[in-house]
Design brief:
By secondary structure, this protein is mainly α. The protein is built from ten helices and no strands. The chain is 78% helix and 0% strand. It starts with a helix and ends with a helix.
Length: 252
């Protein structure tokens, strides 16, 4: 691996980390298209790398949240992780037996579905349980499978699930979701490594770059209008999804 390639990977990590710090979303939405469109990786390798990177980014966030006013609720995190994390192996299996086009289309569809809620400010769900616990756990299985398939942590969906299904207030739900994301990425990433992911030597610059970028993103987030940041990032998600679909389906 030459220095130019290392710098490219580090740059993708930094850009992804900055965007993550700016808008507070997981790495998969950023790293998978970054590695496929800019790094030239195939989508399955990018999904595997994304999950491994998310382990470190969510661990960093969990440690940081431990001393906050709204730390993670470990009982709820453990209970939900028991369904979400193992279910990620379902997505890993589907990815391994499916053509690349299936994974690409699923990822592009996810970007389009999440673009609008990403552009909006997180609502306060009120901290009252509104989804029966068994149903919440069943939804967790679907989130885990999707995470393993397309390489996302699932935090965008886990936050409302923890609030509506477990009765957590929004800030505590955000902290707790990071623990679930970390467990899911750990199991899903291990699944990809065990089934042949071979780009482990490419991960250090991505991980280091993402950690540096995340701190930069958090630093520059405060003086910028949140609405502008979220709208801009949602627009980027739509453009990325359209680019992936156009390349996959040869529509343009």
């Amino acid at each position: 691996m030459d220095w130019l390639h290392l710098l490219l990977l580090g740059g993708i990590g930094v850009v992804g980390g900055i965007l993550s710090g700016l808008v507070g979303v997981g790495g998969g939405i950023i790293f998978v298209p970054g590695l496929t469109l800019a790094g030239g990786w195939n989508v399955k390798e990018a999904v595997a790398a994304s999950l491994i990177i998310i382990i470190f980014s969510s661990l960093s966030g969990t440690i940081r949240n431990a001393h906050s006013e709204n730390p993670a609720r470990w009982r709820e995190a453990g209970l939900l992780s028991l369904t979400v994390a193992p279910a990620s192996l379902i997505g890993v299996y589907i990815s391994r037996i499916s053509p690349e086009q299936v994974v690409e289309i699923c990822f592009a569809a996810l970007l389009l579905l999440l673009a609008y809620p990403t552009s909006r400010k997180r609502p306060d769900y009120g901290g009252d349980r509104k989804i029966p616990l068994p149903l919440a756990l069943a939804i967790g299985v679907l989130i885990g499978a999707l995470s393993g398939l397309v390489g996302v942590g699932g935090g965008v969906v886990l936050v409302p699930l923890l609030s509506l299904g477990f009765g957590l207030d929004i800030k505590t739900a955000i902290s707790t979701s990071l623990v679930v994301v970390m467990a899911t990425a750990l199991v899903g990433g291990a699944g990809y490594v065990a089934t042949g992911f071979g780009n482990l030597l490419s991960l250090p610059p991505l991980i280091v770059g993402s950690m540096i970028g995340a701190w930069v993103g958090v630093r520059i987030r405060d003086p910028l209008p949140e609405g502008v940041i979220r709208t801009g990032f949602a627009f980027l998600m739509v453009l990325t999804a359209l680019k992936i679909l156009s390349d996959t389906l040869n529509v343009f």
